[in-house]
Design a protein that fits this description.
Chains: A mainly alpha, B alpha/beta, C alpha/beta
Distance between the termini of chain A: 60 Å
Radius of gyration of chain B: 29 Å
Oligomer: heterotrimer
Number of strands of chain A: 2
Largest sheet of chain A: 2 strands, antiparallel
Shape of chain B: elongated
Strand content of chain B: 5-15%
Number of strands of chain B: 14
Strand order of the largest sheet of chain A: 1-2
Number of helices of chain A: 11
Largest sheet of chain B: 6 strands, mixed
Helix content of chain A: over 70%
Strand order of the largest sheet of chain B: 10-11-12-7-13-14
């Protein structure tokens, strides 16, 4: 009974952290699909979102929901800036220059936030205080919120991409830019929209995870690496894969830490990634890609 | 790395020691002697030592990223292997410095080779991620496997080596040694692009598929690039460990790997000089920012933010790095040297027609993509010394068939026999080595390399029956360019040539490999009428009495009719007709296929 | 009477003249290596606060050797190589008689050979015992080392609280693994064999496996060496959420201002060793008053150790009468029962100044001084 409860607890934590990886991974995937570029600053979107929340809630003393809204709007605006500052000038130049440019953006963001907010980590309170106690298992309310919001976002994303015109235009853009352009879809605008959306998504992840991991400059980096691993494990550029991959990593590392070794916790995600890349490089859901002559 | 930001390096003889190098060399020689001439602070010596050892690792990035176009975000790990080799060897196991040094480099090289092997199946983002994972695991092991690595405490008391019984415990002497090693390696990396291997690397960077098809063992080239890169990283790390006498895992983490990457990009990934420039600047930049006058003191707090911003700006405004900027500026001042086209020998293309067996034979060849039967059981024979055309409507499987013959796709079933040898399971570069040449429908050249370099890569395929050595390769390539009428454009960067000329360069590249069988995928596509006429003339010259066999696809029926001996027609992956041009082109089923009608007896 | 007044006046004028000349002359520059950037910039800012406050106070009292004292601050970017460069940069200036070095053990270890080569007396705060055992004559530790913190934790838990089922939780970095090793040794001296020793890497996002292991072990007391306040906060919250109510005696990081803010009520009722507590002695109380007034922050170990380090340097320089390294070393080792805010300093030949710790309790978010445990050796 005790063992079962413990396993359940470990599973719950893994699912919750995995959801965060999945949320950040979703942002990754959207940008990959739209621009074929990996955004190494995706984790810092989460960090930035969390700090915006801190600024509104703690700094300006605004009510929770208003702060939440303002932080997400702020992230949307930031997404536009990021699109035009980091991606747009390099859009014709292959993936590597953009990748490096996003690395630069990551360094810039972390240190700018450090200069503004200082190095002390900040505390954010749970959306709902407390949690649910089932026997010896405790489900933290924030983790429950994270799980719920992730599911909501996944549903929203599905609806948005499959059943709205903008979503379909976005999809067309990600599949074939030239064709989309011929069909009169404003490709540049669609890409900007993608950046806005994934910045908001990243910010949302940050706001949600702030109460459990605290808000600190480096909070995004490790999440981003795991999320990126999730993107690849799930299948590069595959939305379903990002979600399953994120949750998979969260659960596996949680159990591996419990059963094998805690200090190597961060290594499990990368080892899995290594294995997947060697034995199934297209990931769980990806299609095998071969270059056409 | 895409072609657009690649170098404009040419192999012209003018790339020799020029006047400015004569200034640079004594200046470079004087630098490590400064500490002997005047008193230099410990801090300055530390910075210098850091710059020199980092620069060696960054040279590795030039090889792997600049030349071979493969991303590596694990250079800090290779640097770490070298450093831990020295530290553990000397401190933990009491081995001599140079033995430990060699072991560290050896481990780095092996790890580099393994990482390089993963490129067999993965490139681009995957490679970025796999190198990051490798880097992270290195870091975690260095921190957590305390019994071996001493964990985060690091390893202190690393001794300095002696060289020919001369103790290098003096900072200045050790620094001099490191600088000399750096200079030697710069020369090596500078010389590399002009070698067979270096050209192959750049070919892989510019267009990996084309490189493979014209005979470059691309996997071996990439693995070699990674091994070289890791080795350079290991050398840098080993010297670093000796220089600072203390190492710990945070010298070798992901941040450092990103730093190495930024250094090579800032300086210019295409050149070893750029690497050194970038390393020096990025090590000095934070110090300069910190030394700002009081009115600018705020910069002190944000200098890392500025550094991040600088990385973005460099990517946007200086794609070739600072060195590329300098070199391009300098090139504009220099007038190009005209190419001497007088003493080029005629292109030797003859293939003795020894017997009557077909040169190319396909037996029941199939290629399926999932449920799609792109090529569905084709039997085909191409006679020696003939021109055989493959035609058919769009999507009938022509290019797929060429790709299977070529080895880009593995056949789902059936056999491919070239000159009596079953090549069905061979890689494209092996088939090229067997005398198979090819051009592509959408031209696949190495855009940032000169026409001559492009063609030399074609000439350097295995078993090419020419004299060994660089002069013969060059001659062969010049002859091929002469044959297509572009010898005077030998030094031009391919990207800058008009479309029609690019086609011809591609044909010259295939011819330089002295093929038995030449595959041409829509050679007339995109050409204007004059260019088409020239192409027909060229193809005629090719077939006249050389014994070369040509297998081609084209949509221009006039062209096909003019030059082909035999035509095969494909539709929906099946052969629907075959024979002499006149009869095939009048075959009702062929006409129906082209006009989009069902054959008369078909189901409507 | 008149005579006396005249004398007083003359002395006053003389003093102010000296003061004036002190202002005019070159100040005494003391180096400070601390984190301005990087993950530890938080603690670094407190260290700088503490040292600055001390320098101000010293200047108010007439400076060092009659001259103003000025801090030269170098960023070490929170890294080992950064620390080495920062130290050698300070050393290269030639006008710095003493340095306040890093508080982190790995950084000290990295910089130790450089400091030995430079021969500049350097105050260090790293608590890894081995730092002062490597034949470096120029390192002086202004904090008790981990042998003492672990002995104090063991003594308090096993002797004062009489708890015997120990779980030891530690970060796998140098500080954490060194501290846990010392704690295990100290516990052995009290005949205690821990029921669990559990390491984790810094910046873990989830401590559930650690908490479950503690739960399973049935420990009634936790001794911890944790490095970052985020980790401490997450661990504390999850520990209490999963219903582990064991007593917790932590190393100094458990009583830092940031950790207490982050973890909130999850840390209530825990004990920590503190080099520094405002109520531990008069000096500490006075320092706390000044610090709060100036920075609107609670003083902590990062600020107090730097405050002491700066004052040790000033006192030593003043009694050495010159700025030669050997004289400064002599003066530091010569300090007898010098009262700092962290306790009573007696430097031994190896450079260790303090031998005791305060035990404090987190009483609903307020730190309450419990006792000072001091060892003679």
């Amino acid at each position: 009974m005790e063992a079962l409860a413990n396993n359940f607890q470990v599973l719950f934590q893994g699912l919750a952290l995995g959801s965060i990886y999945a949320l950040v991974a979703l942002g990754f995937v959207l940008i990959i699909r739209a621009t074929n570029v990996v955004n190494f600053a995706q984790g810092d979107f989460a960090m930035l979102g969390a700090y915006m929340m801190v600024a509104c809630l703690v700094g300006a003393g605004l009510p929770y929901w208003l702060s939440f809204l303002l932080a997400l709007i702020g992230m949307g605006v930031f997404g536009i800036l990021f699109n035009y500052g980091v991606y747009f000038p390099l859009r014709h130049r292959g993936f590597l220059p953009v990748l490096i440019s996003t690395l630069g953006a990551s360094i810039f963001l972390q240190n700018t936030v450090l200069a503004i907010f200082g190095a002390q980590p900040k505390r954010l309170d749970n959306v709902i205080q407390g949690g649910v106690q089932i026997g010896s298992v405790f489900l933290d309310s924030q983790y429950l919120v994270i799980l719920a919001v992730t599911m909501l976002m996944v549903a929203f994303q599905y609806f948005f991409f499959e059943h709205t015109l903008v979503g379909k235009k976005l999809q067309a853009t990600s599949q074939d830019k030239d064709m989309a352009r011929l069909l009169g879809i404003p490709v540049a605008l669609m890409i900007a929209v993608t950046f806005i959306y994934s910045a908001v998504l990243g910010g949302l992840a940050g706001v949600l995870v702030g109460p459990v991991l605290f808000v600190s400059i480096g909070m995004g980096s490790i999440i981003a690496l795991k999320a990126f691993a999730a993107t690849i494990i799930g299948g590069f550029g595959d939305v379903k894969g990002a979600i399953v991959g994120g949750i998979f990593i969260g659960v596996v590392e949680s159990f591996a830490a419990y059963y094998i070794s805690v200090p190597y916790k961060d290594a499990y995600a990368f080892m899995m990634l290594f294995l997947v890349l060697v034995f199934r490089p297209q990931g769980f859901f990806g299609e095998k890609v071969s270059e056409k002559a | 790395m895409r072609s657009q930001e690649s170098s404009r390096t040419t192999l012209s003889p003018s790339r020799r020691l020029s006047a400015w190098l004569l200034v640079l060399i004594p200046a470079a020689a004087a630098v490590p002697l400064i500490p002997y001439a005047t008193e230099v602070s410990h801090f300055a010596v530390s910075m210098f030592m850091q710059t020199v050892t980092y620069a060696i690792a960054v040279l590795g990035m030039v090889v792997v990223l600049g030349y071979a176009g493969q991303i590596n975000l694990a250079q800090a790990a290779f640097f770490g292997f070298g450093a831990y080799g020295v530290a553990l060897g000397t401190v933990s196991y009491g081995l001599p410095f140079w033995v430990s040094f060699a072991m560290g480099i050896g481990v780095a090289a092996i790890a580099g080779g393994i990482l390089g092997l993963t490129t067999l199946r993965l490139g681009g983002h995957y490679l970025a991620m796999i190198t990051i994972s490798f880097q992270q695991i290195f870091d975690l092991v260095a921190v957590n496997w305390i019994a071996l690595t001493h964990g985060p405490d690091g390893i202190a008391g690393i001794p300095r080596p002696s060289l020919f019984s001369y103790e290098l415990s003096d900072d200045r002497a050790y620094l001099l040694l490191c600088t000399l090693v750096l200079y030697g390696l710069i020369a090596l990396v500078w010389w590399l692009p002009q070698t067979r291997l270096g050209r192959a690397m750049r070919g892989v960077r510019e267009n990996e598929l084309a490189a493979e098809v014209i005979g470059v063992h691309t996997l071996r080239v990439k693995v070699t690039a990674f091994i070289l890169c890791a080795t350079l990283g290991g050398i840098g790390g080993g010297l670093y460990a000796g220089g600072f006498a203390y190492i710990s895992p945070d010298n070798f983490n992901f941040t450092r790997a990103v730093e190495f990457l930024s250094m090579v990009l800032l300086g210019g990934a295409q050149s070893p000089f750029g690497a050194v420039l970038g390393t020096t600047l990025l090590i000095l930049l934070p110090e300069w920012l910190k030394e700002m006058p009081p009115s600018l003191q705020f910069i002190k707090d944000v200098y890392l933010a500025i550094y991040g911003l600088a990385v973005i700006l460099i990517m946007v405004f200086m794609p070739e790095g600072l060195w590329g900027l300098l070199r391009n500026g300098w090139k504009k001042l220099r007038s190009p040297v005209p190419v001497d086209t007088t003493s080029i020998p005629k292109l030797e293309l003859d293939i003795p027609v020894t017997d009557a067996t077909p040169l190319l034979k396909l037996e029941g060849m199939q290629k399926f993509f999932g449920g799609l039967r792109a090529v569905d059981g084709i039997d085909l024979e191409v006679g020696r010394g003939t021109v055989h055309a493959l035609i058919g409507p769009n999507g009938s499987g022509k290019t797929t068939m060429l790709n299977v013959v070529n080895g880009i796709y593995k056949p789902t079933g059936g056999r491919i026999i070239i000159d009596g040898q079953d090549v069905s399971q061979k890689a494209p570069h092996e088939r090229a080595g067997h005398g198979l040449g090819r051009t592509f429908q959408n031209i696949r050249l190495f855009p940032a390399m000169s026409a001559l370099e492009n063609v030399i890569v074609g000439a350097q395929r295995d078993n090419n029956p020419i004299e060994p050595g660089r002069p013969a390769l060059r001659m062969r390539a010049m002859s091929a360019l002469q044959f297509v009428g572009l010898a005077d454009k030998a030094d031009a960067i391919v990207r800058s040539l008009p479309y029609g000329h690019q086609r011809l360069v591609e044909i010259a590249r295939a011819l330089a490999g002295h093929p038995k069988l030449l595959l041409l995928d829509e050679p007339a596509a995109g050409l204007n009428q004059t260019e088409k006429m020239e192409l027909v003339e060229l193809l005629r010259r090719l077939r006249s009495g050389h014994g070369l066999t040509i297998f081609l696809i084209d949509h221009d029926m006039g062209l096909v009719e003019k030059i082909s001996d035999r035509i095969t027609v494909l539709n929906f992956g099946k052969k629907i007709a075959e024979g002499a041009p006149q009869e095939v082109l009048r075959h009702p089923e062929v006409i129906a296929a082209y006009l989009g009608e069902e054959p008369a007896n078909g189901v409507a | 009477m008149r005579m006396y007044l005249l004398c007083a006046l003359a002395t006053g004028v003389a003093t102010s003249l000296i003061g004036l000349s002190a202002v005019a002359a070159d100040p005494i520059r003391i180096g400070l290596v601390s984190e301005i950037t990087g993950p530890n910039a938080e603690a670094g800012s407190y260290t700088i606060n503490g040292a600055k406050l001390a320098a101000e106070e010293i200047n108010k009292k007439g400076g060092i050797l009659g001259q103003r004292v000025e801090l030269v601050i170098e960023d070490n970017q929170s890294t080992n190589p950064g620390t080495v460069l920062a130290i050698s940069k300070l050393g290269g200036r030639k006008d710095i008689p003493a340095i306040i070095g890093p508080i982190r053990s790995t950084q000290t270890q990295a910089a130790s050979p450089t400091i030995a080569k430079l021969g500049i007396p350097t105050m260090i705060g790293g608590s890894d015992p081995s730092l002062t055992r490597v034949n470096n004559r120029w390192l002086f530790r202004c904090r008790p080392n981990d042998l003492y913190s672990s002995r104090v934790i063991a003594d308090f838990g096993a002797n004062s609280l009489k708890l015997k089922k120990w779980a030891v939780v530690h970060s796998t970095d140098a500080f954490g693994s060194g501290g846990s090793k010392a704690l295990l040794d100290a516990l052995t001296a009290y005949g205690v064999e821990p029921v669990l020793v559990q390491g984790y890497t810094n910046n873990s996002q989830d401590f559930t496996p650690v908490v479950l292991a503690i739960k399973k072990s049935g420990a009634d007391i936790i001794g911890s060496y944790m490095t970052t306040s985020q980790d401490l906060g997450i661990f504390a919250k999850q520990l209490r959420q999963l219903g582990v109510n064991a007593t917790w005696v932590g190393s100094a990081s458990i009583v830092t201002d940031t950790a207490m803010k982050l973890a909130g009520d999850a840390l209530h009722g825990t004990y920590g060793v503190a080099d520094f507590n405002p109520d531990a002695n008069e000096e500490a109380t006075a320092f706390s008053k000044m610090y709060r007034a100036k920075y609107k922050l609670e003083p902590d170990v990062y600020s107090s150790w730097a405050f002491d380090a700066m004052n040790v340097i000033a006192t030593a320089l003043n009694s050495a009468k010159d700025t030669k390294p050997e004289s400064i070393r002599g003066a530091i080792v010569g300090l007898k029962n010098w009262k700092g805010v962290e306790g009573i300093y007696n430097f031994d030949e190896q450079g260790d100044g303090l031998r005791g710790y305060n035990i404090v309790k987190n009483d609903n978010g307020k730190l309450v001084f419990v006792k000072h445990i001091n060892f003679e050796k």
